[in-house]
Design brief:
This protein is an alpha+beta fold. Helix content is 44%, strand content 15%. It contains 5 helices and 5 strands; from the N terminus they run H-H-H-E-E-E-E-H-E-H. The strands form 2 sheets. Strands 4-3-5 form a 3-stranded mixed β-sheet, with no helix packed on it. The chain has a two-stranded antiparallel ribbon with strand order 1-2. The longest helix is centred in the C-terminal third of the chain and has 14 residues. It starts with 8 loop residues before the first helix and ends in a 5-residue tail after the last helix. The model has no long low-confidence stretch (mean pLDDT 85).
């Protein structure tokens, strides 16, 4: 965060939750953290803070294939996402080979990208195993 950006106390708290939290948080997760830590903040205030932080370029939002937004601090490293369609787990993908392929593609076609987002969806390993166990025929 640059020194020229002025944030309210609540906006700083929400940004701190995103920076120090785990995973890709949504507004409800931030509200739950507030309740757990005794921080007095409403869901409406969280949404307003997220809007300000997003408008100031401090956070990015993505639906990640779900019906609500997830937020994370702006990160200079390129990463993509896998979302389990059964349990909703989100896994970040950091892969230089994918990044090289995207760079090669943009050079080959003379493209200038403004952003890159890749979303993979399917079943995570845990859900694959759980589903396989439930499909096994029962012994008689």
């Amino acid at each position: 965060m640059t020194a020229s950006v002025r944030l309210s106390r609540q906006q700083k708290w929400v940004l701190d939750c995103l920076v120090n939290g785990s995973g890709h948080q949504d507004a409800e997760t931030i509200l739950q953290h507030a309740h757990e830590t005794g921080h007095p903040i409403s869901l409406a205030t969280i949404y307003r803070a997220l809007g300000v932080l997003h408008d100031r370029g401090l956070i990015v939002s993505s639906s990640l294939g779900q019906n609500h937004q997830h937020f994370e601090p702006v990160d200079e490293s390129t990463h993509h996402h896998f979302v389990c369609s059964q349990c909703g787990v989100i896994i970040e993908i950091h892969d230089p080979v994918i990044d090289q392929q995207i760079t090669s593609f943009t050079r080959e076609h003379g493209i200038e990208l403004s952003q890159t987002r890749m979303l993979l969806q399917g079943l995570c390993g845990s859900c694959v195993k759980r589903n396989a166990k439930s499909r096994k025929p029962k012994a008689r």
